[in-house]
């Protein structure tokens, strides 16, 4: 019995299903980020441009997009990433619980913030 061809069939079936799921999740998160940008008063297509979207996300959260450059500093980027998750939830009117959800389950939190009752409240002016 040739096990290599059987393994190839199993892998090809699994990879097709996971590829379709990944494509659906990618499209849902793209749309969610588009809506989050529009909730913040920015054009939604800003969320599609790779590095500019990160700059605009920091501008939405902190009021200053140049803080995104701090992501290039080792170890500070980890601290900033954790703080960003909590601030991101805060600027959309959510509490600390949603900050933890944003930290550990960012895709779920992004979908909730975009399609749920969250409203943009304005940037948080703090260092981190």
Question: How would you characterize this protein structure?
Answer:
The protein is mostly helical. The chain has helices at 3-39, 50-62, 76-91, 96-104, 106-115. Helix 1 (3-39) packs across helix 5 and helix 3 (76-91) packs across helix 4 (96-104). The radius of gyration is 18 Å and the shape is globular.
Task: Give the secondary structure arrangement, pairings included.
Elements: H1 3-39, H2 50-62, H3 76-91, H4 96-104, H5 106-115
Amount of helix: 55-70%
Shape: globular
Number of beta-strand segments: 0
- Helix/strand order, N-terminal first: HHHHH
Mean pLDDT: 89
Residue windows where pLDDT falls under 50 for at least 5 positions: none
Rg, rounded, reads: 18 Å
Q: Please give the count of helices.
A: 5
| Biggest sheet layout | none
**What distance lies between the first and last C-alpha atoms, to the nearest angstrom?**
60 Å
Classify the secondary structure makeup into a structural class: mainly alpha
Strand content: under 5%
């Amino acid at each position: 019995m040739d096990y290599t061809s059987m393994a190839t069939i199993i892998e090809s079936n699994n990879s097709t299903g996971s590829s379709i799921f990944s494509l659906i999740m990618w499209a849902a998160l793209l749309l969610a980020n588009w809506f989050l940008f529009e909730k913040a008063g920015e054009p939604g297509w800003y969320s599609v441009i790779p590095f500019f979207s990160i700059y605009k996300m920091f501008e939405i959260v902190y009021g200053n997009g140049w803080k995104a450059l701090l992501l290039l500093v080792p170890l500070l980027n980890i601290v900033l990433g954790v703080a960003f998750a909590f601030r991101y939830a805060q600027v959309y009117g959510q509490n600390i619980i949603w900050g933890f959800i944003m930290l550990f389950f960012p895709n779920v939190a992004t979908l909730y913030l975009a399609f749920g009752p969250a409203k943009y409240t304005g940037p948080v002016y703090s260092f981190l």
